[in-house]
Amino acid sequence: MLNRRILRIKAFKTIYSYAENSSMSLKEVEAQLERSCESTRDLYLFLLSIVNPLTEEARARIEAAKAKFNPTEEEKHPNLKFVENAIAVVLAEDPDFCKLVSKKKLSWEQYDVFLRHLYESIRQKKYFLDYMSRPERSLKEDAGLWAKIFENEFEDNEELEAILEDMCIWWNDDVAYALNWCCRTMDKLGTGVHWDLPRLYLSEIQHSSEDDHGFVLGIVRKAVSNFDRYYESVASLTPKWDKNRICYTDLALIVAGLAENEAFPHIPANVTINEYVEISKFYSTPESRGFVNGLLDKLINKR
Question: What integer is the mean pLDDT of 105-122?
Fold first, then answer.
């Protein structure tokens, strides 16, 4: 599930935490890294589990309208296409999915206000109106609708951001990535493929540093073991800076790059440098791109 870019981000964030609190033991650092990686898949599960609560929100709206003292003809004879969507049935009847969501205590039950707001937004969108207007029904079409919902309704949603921030400190940064996996899941379910839990690490070679788990763990272990040396190397090339004032974000990015280069020398240096420069665009200051690029280039290529 986690590609190399997001694994580098996980490593960088873990190293940042260590830079801020160097009293952490290696065991504590590794445990934080593992929780951070697993949290992305938990977020995917949480977002995917909204299918049934949102479907039930729509059903409750229909039942409430029918129960009015003087319902309209449309309210008496509602369009049930969405509330009878096949994807909700597929996930509700999947024992593995339901058991895992329950085990991890992932629930939308207390977020009924968000569900109401979300459904109100969705039901006015053109893609939803187009879906509801077509008389034909199919698993593929229902999956396509849910993919559009995941694509259009969750990113940059301030109400959702507040929910996720309360639930897990790592979730907000992973929303786009988890949503992409929700869409990929819809593509599979739409073809009738049974749901299965995505493998956390895309490549797994037992007892090998070459697998994705070994890759991210190798970066963090190398960074923690050599942090003071890397720190001094950075400080030596920034004489105009008080070394205690070097931005921890930039420092963590540079340390991560140096650690990856030492732990995995077969990865081309320019690939490693470019990866952390790209990450700096999202997590540091506008000036960081040049700073990180320049320092990594000097420190790696002088070896």
Answer: 97
